[in-house]
Amino acid sequence: MGEQRKVRCTHCQSENQSIFSSEIAVHFRGLEGLNKPIVWVFQDVLACLNCGHAEFTVPGKELEVLRTGSPVEGAAVWLGGSGDREEDQR
Q: Are residues 39 and 77 in contact, defined by beta-carbon separation less than 8 angstroms?
């Protein structure tokens, strides 16, 4: 199990929390989000084992992608593709 923390949950005030490694794909909402990059966040997540509330911090470059909706050099993003390898390499 993850590393135990003795900090109270901001949602239910429980001290029953753990830190876990994670890979989170953040998607823009709605149909217009289909044309925007998917932002990958590889951060530790603090999860309350009582109510399920979880917290993590989005790193700077990935946060800029979320602010602008456009790729940023050095950020972990996926721009999508048609599934056609030849077309994806253009």
A: yes
The Cα–Cα gap between 49 and 26 comes to 22
Q: Can you tell me the mean pLDDT for 18-43? A: 96
Domain coordinates in residue numbering, the chain: 3-88
pTM: 0.76
Q: What is the pLDDT of residues 48-58, one digit of tens each?
A: 999 999 999 99
What the block records as the tokens of 44 is: 């530790």
Strand ranges inside the chain, DSSP E: 3-5, 17-21, 24-26, 38-41, 44-48, 54-55, 77-78
